[in-house]
């Protein structure tokens, strides 16, 4: 697949996706959304790829969100079923996705990060949902994910003021997992990804799916139904389910096959 607005690199079982429109702070338009939909479709379907990292090209921005200049010039706005960047409405991917936020993450850019499972941010990263300042609203998941991730009052404080939040404050609020020095967001995300890949990918997918499905129902229902979740059934039926205890008993590192 020819890529015009993003770059894809694979390091073993880790896929690195770079949003690549640095001339507009990696803001995204319709064509970029559809391209990224295909990129993350490929990642989701590839059994050899276990974890993805998404970051931005250059040293200034992760993603400045929707390309407003494109829109103002009459450019068509829209995206595929996966949502903004192919991620914000993607609810069927059980593989972990990490945001390596290397600068500005505004509007849709922040919504991309919130849709990821982990956020590793450089010290110069800045987060905001500034849509009300231009007559819009953060309808690519930000208005729903932020309150769920940091609590209602804290989220309201960001959303209603449209204020900018530093990486340090993001960590204090709870939506950033780790703050790293400027220029080290990707290396920090790779460190987290490598820790994840030491675990069985079947167990990781079962864990992510169980968390996601369980959050939508009562605790009692979640515990009662979890063994019927597809990823949990796949884990129990997998070779990794046998390999893990066997490797432990033989006092050796497990050899995960992801099936």
Automatic annotation (TrEMBL):
PANTHER family: ENOYL-COA HYDRATASE, MITOCHONDRIAL (PTHR11941:SF54), ENOYL-COA HYDRATASE-RELATED (PTHR11941)
One example GO MF annotation: enoyl-CoA hydratase activity
The protein's name in its UniProt record: Enoyl-CoA hydratase
Coiled coil: none
Keyword Lipid metabolism attached: no
Alphabetical keyword list: Lyase
Enzyme Commission number(s): 4.2.1.17
One Pfam short name: ECH_1
Class in the EC hierarchy, top level: lyase
CDD domains according to UniProt: crotonase-like
Gene Ontology BP annotations: fatty acid beta-oxidation
Record-stated family: Belongs to the enoyl-CoA hydratase/isomerase family.
Keyword Secreted: no
């Amino acid at each position: 697949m020819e890529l015009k607005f993003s770059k894809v690199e694979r390091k073993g079982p880790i896929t690195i996706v770079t949003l690549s429109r640095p001339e507009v702070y990696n803001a995204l338009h319709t064509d970029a959304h559809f391209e990224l939909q295909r990129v993350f479709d490929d990642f989701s379907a590839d059994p050899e790829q276990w974890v993805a990292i998404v970051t931005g090209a250059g040293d200034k921005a992760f993603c400045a969100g929707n390309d407003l200049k494109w829109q103002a010039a009459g450019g068509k706005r829209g995206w595929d079923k996966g949502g903004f960047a192919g991620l914000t409405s993607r609810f069927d991917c059980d593989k972990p996705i990490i945001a390596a936020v290397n600068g500005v993450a505004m509007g849709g850019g922040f919504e991309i990060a919130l849709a990821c499972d982990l956020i590793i941010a450089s010290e110069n990263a800045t987060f905001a949902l500034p849509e009300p300042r231009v007559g819009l609203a953060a309808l690519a998941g930000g208005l729903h994910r932020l309150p769920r991730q940091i609590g209602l009052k804290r989220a309201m404080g960001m959303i209603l003021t449209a204020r900018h939040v530093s990486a340090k404050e993001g960590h204090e609020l709870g939506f950033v997992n780790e703050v790293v020095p400027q220029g080290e967001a990707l290396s920090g995300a790779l460190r987290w990804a490598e820790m994840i890949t030491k675990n069985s990918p079947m167990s990781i997918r079962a864990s992510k799916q169980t968390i996601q499905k369980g959050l939508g129902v009562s605790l009692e229902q979640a515990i009662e139904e979890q063994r019927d979740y597809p990823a949990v059934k796949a884990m129990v039926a997998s070779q990794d389910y046998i390999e893990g205890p066997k490797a432990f008993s033989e006092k050796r590192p497990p050899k995960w096959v992801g099936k």
